[in-house]
């Protein structure tokens, strides 16, 4: 994953046939809870969207997207994946320390260089966040240059 602690909001993640699932436990020790809000720690909605975006990045890296014609053999370069937009976001529940966030993303459409997912976060059976569209941009890894042997000075081939 390109993201690392303290800015990684996934404790575990997996991919399946229809997308990716993940979990994040709000411990109360997160740096951002010190000021959001004083004496009333609440997980910022923007960071919950970040967590969904991170799960979508994981899904892309793990090959959830269908291969585009002509790019079947090209791996996606994790350094080229960036969050570009989100639409239709609704927050249904305040999330606090002790809550276990269960995240899910499913691909909606892919048109190079964009991949759009739908995402949701639940706490138990309760809806916490719904995002109708989370769009990421991505690129393919460049093939490694071929190494060719050059003859030593005075050597012939």
Please render the helix and strand layout as text.
Elements: E1 12-16, E2 19-25, H1 45-61, E3 82-91, E4 100-111, E5 114-123, E6 126-137
Antiparallel strand pairs: 1-2, 2-4, 3-6, 4-5, 5-6
Assign the CATH architecture. Answer: Roll
Distance between the termini: 45 Å
Largest sheet: spatial strand order:
1-2-4-5-6-3
Average pLDDT rating? 92
* Helix-strand pattern: EEHEEEE
Number of helices: 1
CATH top level label: Alpha Beta
Task: Write down the Rg.
Answer: 20 Å
CA-based shape: elongated
Strand content: 35-45%
Summarize the structure.
This protein is mainly beta and 157 residues long.
Structure characterization notes:
InterPro entries: FabA_FabZ (IPR013114), HotDog_dom_sf (IPR029069). Pfam families: FabA. One of its GO terms (molecular function) is lyase activity. It comes from Ereboglobus luteus. This is Beta-hydroxyacyl-ACP dehydratase. Strands 1-2-4-5-6-3 form a 6-stranded antiparallel sheet, with helices on one face. It has one domain: Hotdog Thioesterase (Thiol Ester Dehydrase, Chain A). It has 1 helix and 6 strands. Strand 1 and strand 2 (19-25) form a beta hairpin. It has 157 residues and is mostly beta strands. 11% of the residues lie in helices and 36% in strands. The longest helix is centred in the middle third of the chain and has 17 residues, at 45-61. The chain is elongated.
